[in-house]
Design a protein that fits this description.
Largest sheet of chain A: 2 strands, antiparallel
Number of strands of chain A: 2
Helix content of chain B: over 70%
Distance between the termini of chain B: 56 Å
Radius of gyration of chain B: 27 Å
Shape of chain B: flat
Radius of gyration of chain A: 24 Å
Structural class of chain B: mainly alpha
Number of helices of chain A: 15
CATH architecture of the domain at 78-235 and 248-284 in chain A: Orthogonal Bundle
CATH topology of the domain at 78-235 and 248-284 in chain A: MetI-like fold
CATH architecture of chain B: Orthogonal Bundle
CATH class of the domain at 78-235 and 248-284 in chain A: Mainly Alpha
Order of helices and strands of chain B: HEEHHHHHHHHHHHH
CATH class of chain B: Mainly Alpha
Number of domains of chain B: 1
Strand content of chain A: under 5%
Structural class of chain A: mainly alpha
CATH topology of chain B: MetI-like fold
Number of strands of chain B: 2
Strand order of the largest sheet of chain A: 1-2
Oligomer: heterodimer
Shape of chain A: globular
CATH superfamily of the domain at 78-235 and 248-284 in chain A: MetI-like
Largest sheet of chain B: 2 strands, antiparallel
Chain lengths: ~290, ~300
């Protein structure tokens, strides 16, 4: 009896669940197959299931760069967009980290009046529609001369990254006890030494996790960059928007840029799944 | 008089003025950077937005503050109310459908199955990439000459592109909603699944041992426990959908589109006074979503309290 109960614990999938999991897998990964194919196409006319002319063949005779050649040529402006995307994300991550670290420590460890209100306030960017933030920020920045500038975009990106950073760091601080720091202080280390030799190494995994999320969120932002940047500063998402905003069909260059835009997320997923537990992952995304 | 001398207290050593200040100011000081940053950015945006929507825009040579004319004009346009309807429709349906599908997925993921480790990677992929990637995939697969139509052609079900059902750029909003679902089911699943992991299975097993059937166990034991996860996931997703711009802009129908798209159109109009009505739409979006959020959270509190009492 006992052994039967124990054997039941990790239950087997029902046929419906099996079907559902397979369906989800296909729905997530399926569309990327034609996307990769489309990025290598030269002509792909109706109703053929595979390209009617491939880029590899066409590039030999073409006078202009095609498909991936075009994506990586100077015409496509992909190079500067990558640099902008990464530079903005790096600065945003750093500033966000500096702003959020002290707050996360206090929220995780101290009890004070209005704590709930502060925590809720730090989450509000997740609950306010992006367009309201975007347009409001834009008119303010026009007034201040920050619209269309790098600084303006970085400031705007701070809004959606702060909630995630605070959440991740808070959950990390909650997970480790004060004891080690207190012991270090009792044993005569100065507060600064304690911070550097005890606290920082212990929260390093959390800092890394929070930074990776902030970096990813920043690289994925479209609306705020598009509004505040006003076409002056292009990142990968705004470039993709310019490519697909008029609908129609997806040409090989658009397909290539779509793959590039997906790259940071894929890389991060591969890294983080390794060392982040599901709960930390979830807390990073607002659970 | 002598009793209250702090210096004579052997347990609490006398603190210097600076130390005493630091003790008191520690929490506010640590919270200050992030709170001030958000208040300035957020508050600044909100105040400027409200002022502009009320007619204060000296930058464009308009200063009729305070006037409600922009709101009056807006509320008097039938297109505006259509737009309100579409915004609600595109935001609500994916939230509800996505919630149901996510709970199912999270429950399925608790079981043991082959390839579970791999699946944990796969299902999170849409979460990690921008909405615009979803939009691009949507165009690739579901446009009238897209992959889905070609497959149907190959199977002999349709013969021209015109026979493929219109999924993109229609007021029914299929394309918009499918992209939301594709992006958001992983998000909601992740939240609900992590709540489930934290719960363990003891209470469910107890219910089943006591003779509850699986449906009853889910409804009376599991669901109430994952309610907090469900509430926070749906609030975030609904608020996002309500204010989403790029998805309805590319995949939605023409006029009238959702409120965010109309706000942007008004704002990028060559006529600067149009910007003020764009601002009025934006403030309307923020106000409606604020009210909804408040109602939803108070309803949830009421529900929790009632459950606690009964």
């Amino acid at each position: 009896m006992v052994s039967r109960l124990r054997g039941r614990r990790p239950m087997a999938l029902s046929p419906f669940q099996r079907f559902y999991l397979i369906f989800v897998t296909l729905a997530v990964l399926g569309p990327f197959v034609p996307l990769v194919i489309a990025s290598f196409a030269f002509r792909w006319s109706w109703p053929s299931l595979l390209p009617t002319a491939w880029w590899i063949k066409a590039r030999e005779t073409a006078r202009l760069p095609l498909a991936w050649d075009y994506v990586f040529s100077t015409y496509s402006r992909v190079g500067p967009a990558i640099i902008n995307t990464v530079a903005i994300a790096l600065v945003v991550t750093l500033v966000c980290l500096v702003l959020c670290l002290p707050a996360a420590r206090v929220i995780a460890r101290e009890n004070f009046r209005g704590k709930g209100a502060v925590e809720f306030f730090l989450l509000t960017p997740l609950m306010v529609p992006e367009i309201a933030i975007g347009l409001g920020i834009l008119v303010t920045f026009i007034q201040l001369g920050l619209a269309g500038t790098f600084v303006g975009i970085v400031l705007a990106h701070l809004i959606p990254t702060i909630p995630y950073m605070v959440r991740t760091l808070t959950s990390v601080f909650q997970g480790l006890s004060k004891d080690y720091e207190e012991q270090s202080l009792v044993l005569g280390a100065s507060p600064l030494k304690t911070l550097w030799h005890v606290t920082v190494p212990m929260i390093m995994p959390g800092i890394l996790a929070g930074s990776l999320f902030a970096f990813l969120i920043s690289t994925n932002i479209f609306l705020l960059t598009f509004f505040v940047g006003r076409g002056g500063i292009n990142t990968l998402p705004t470039l993709l928007f310019a490519k697909i905003s008029y609908g129609g069909s997806l040409d090989p260059v658009a397909a290539g840029i779509t793959l590039l835009v997906s790259a940071p997320g894929v890389v991060l997923l591969l890294i983080t799944e390794r060392f982040l537990k599901e709960e930390v992952f979830a807390s990073g995304f607002g659970a | 008089m002598t009793t209250a001398q702090p210096t004579s207290d052997p347990i609490r050593p006398r603190l210097s003025l600076w130390q005493r200040f630091f003790r008191r100011a520690y929490v506010p000081l640590m919270l200050a950077p992030v709170v001030i940053a958000l208040v300035v950015l957020f508050g600044g945006a909100l105040v400027m937005g409200i002022l502009q929507s009320l007619g204060y825009a000296p930058l464009y040579g308009v200063n009729t503050f305070p006037t409600f004319a922009y709101y009056r004009d807006l509320f008097g346009t039938p297109g505006f109310w259509m737009s309100v309807f579409y915004t609600f429709y595109y935001a609500t349906v994916p939230t509800l459908v996505g919630l149901a599908l996510s709970v199912l997925l999270a429950l399925a993921m608790r079981n043991r199955f082959r390839g579970k480790g791999l699946f944990q990677y796969v299902y999170k992929l849409p979460l990690m990439i921008p909405y615009l990637v979803g939009v691009a995939l949507m165009i690739l697969v579901f446009s009238n000459g897209g992959i889905a139509a070609r497959v149907l052609y190959a199977l002999g079900i349709i013969h021209t592109t015109g026979q493929f059902p219109r999924i993109l750029n229609t007021h029914a909003g299929w394309g918009v909603m499918i992209v939301y679902l594709w992006k958001q089911i992983p998000f909601m699943t992740l939240i609900i699944y992590s709540v489930l992991l934290g719960l363990g299975r003891e209470s469910e097993e107890a219910a089943q041992t006591l003779g509850a059937n699986p449906w009853k166990t889910f409804w009376n034991v599991t669901l109430p426990q994952i309610m907090p996860g469900i509430v926070s996931a749906s609030v975030i997703v609904f608020a996002f959908n309500f204010g989403s711009f790029e998805v309805p802009f590319v995949l939605g129908a023409g006029f009238p589109n959702t409120l965010p798209v109309e706000a942007w159109r008004a704002f990028s109009d060559a006529d600067y006074t149009q910007r003020l009505s764009g601002m009025a739409i934006t403030i309307f979006i923020a106000a409606v979503s604020g009210v909804l959020l408040f109602l939803y959270l108070s309803m949830y509190r009421w529900f929790e309290r009632r459950r606690g009492r009964s």
